[in-house]
Amino acid sequence: MNEDARRHLEELLDREIDAAHALAAALDEERKALTGTSPQTIEEKAAEKIRLLGAIEKLEDERRALAVAAEQALPGARVPQGSSLAATVAERWRTLMELMTGCRTSNEINGYIINLRQGQIRQLIGIVRGGTPLTTYTSQGKTFARALRALAKA
């Protein structure tokens, strides 16, 4: 790998790492918003996450094109392994992959929170509408369905 290509790849990976740090922070903020009470904040944090994912995708496309041009084999660059990578590039790559793995985990947790909240809302709407029976437990731990009646009618 020539010196210019290596330096350019290092700079690009540094930008990706910065974007991944920003995404991790945005995902943490999104999780806080999801456990809060402001729908507006949730929308803002979700929009920020989507914007950062778009920026990361553009950087990744640029990195892949550079890796192909330099005939380098970063995983995900879709080029055959040829020459060896500089240690600095390999270290940046490992850092980026660790950050993105953390981001994936955070995003999955946020998705779980969303699904949980949606289930709670569906259950509350069902109670208000007098919908399907609610499954409850007896003191012996057995389940039974208790019929619900609407709280109000319009």
Write the SSE topology.
Blueprint: H1 3-34, H2 39-70, H3 87-129, E1 134-137, E2 143-146
Antiparallel strand pairs: 1-2
Helix pairs in contact: 1-2, 1-3
What does this structure look like?
- The chain has a two-stranded antiparallel sheet.
- It has 154 residues and is mainly alpha-helical.
- It has a single domain (3-146), classed as Methane Monooxygenase Hydroxylase, Chain G, domain 1, CATH 1.20.58.
- The protein has helices at residues 3-34, 39-70, 87-129, and strands spanning 134-137, 143-146.
- It has 3 helices and 2 strands; from the N terminus they run H-H-H-E-E.
- A hairpin with a 5-residue loop joins strand 1 and strand 2.
- It is elongated, with a radius of gyration of 24 Å.
Number of strands: 2
Which ranges are low-confidence, i.e. pLDDT below 50, for 5 or more consecutive residues? 76-83
Structure annotation, total helices? 3
Helix content: 55-70%
Tell me the strand order in the biggest sheet: 1-2
The residue-averaged pLDDT reads 82
Counting helices, strands and paired strands, the structural category is mainly alpha
How many structural domains?
1
The largest β sheet comes out as: 2 strands, antiparallel
Spatial shape: elongated
> Any idea what the CATH architecture is?
Up-down Bundle
| Spatial separation of the terminal alpha carbons | 73 Å
Run of helices and strands: HHHEE
Q: Which fold does the CATH topology refer to?
A: Methane Monooxygenase Hydroxylase, Chain G, domain 1
CA-atom Rg in angstroms: 24 Å
